[in-house]
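Reproducibility note. Readers wishing to regenerate the assembly model reported in the main text can use the exact inputs given here. Chain order matters: entities are listed in the order in which they were concatenated for prediction.
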Amino acid sequence: DGGITQSPKYLFRKEGQNVTLSCEQNLNHDAMYWYRQDPGQGLRLIYYSQIVNDFQKGDIAEGYSVSREKKESFPLTVTSAQKNPTAFYLCASSREVGPAPYEQYFGPGTRLTVT
Amino acid sequence: AQSVAQPEDQVNVAEGNPLTVKCTYSVSGNPYLFWYVQYPNRGLQFLLKYITGDNLVKGSYGFEAEFNKSQTSFHLKKPSALVSDSALYFCAVRDAGGFKTIFGAGTRLFVKA
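Running the prediction on these inputs yields the following structure tokens for the assembly.
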């Protein structure tokens, strides 16, 4: 089955530690995204990548970093510089070729709790 | 700049009644419009998207959406609600000339049996 996997589902860290969230897709999509979801705020874009070895900051990139070394993978690191990291993190991908518009496909999410 | 507004935090309907979840948007160019649904503790699932020329768009699970250019709206509708439709619904917009998609804050739908 094609889709997006995120691991782990739940993640707990102590304040001051960096943590990396995994995102893998086997949909052969070129574009990948990371969103943060907080209650009542919808989804906010952290980073996005249109092609391998290229990525751009979204609206709330401070305290986060990403890499895109392979088409299938787009890991997100939450650094100790992120002031309020506890949230639900969603990874997504989209096709970006052929007839538009291009819907996004989402992973199941990772709930990060930092104490 | 793009923006999308979902004016209702919550919508309550009785099972079997029609439902509407409202969405208005703002983009500088032509809009790409989407609706997604999120069930508890899960990722978002795509419901439907607006394609130029079709003002009434049909999607998954019996949902449809009505595009109104003059009112810059893209309201989600269903003729007969089911209890299983209870979830969090997100409207999203992307400028056809751009790359980023902006999501609304979400509307929680409760369908009562």
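We highlight two features of this model. DSSP finds no helices and twelve strands in chain B. Chain B has a mean pLDDT of 93.
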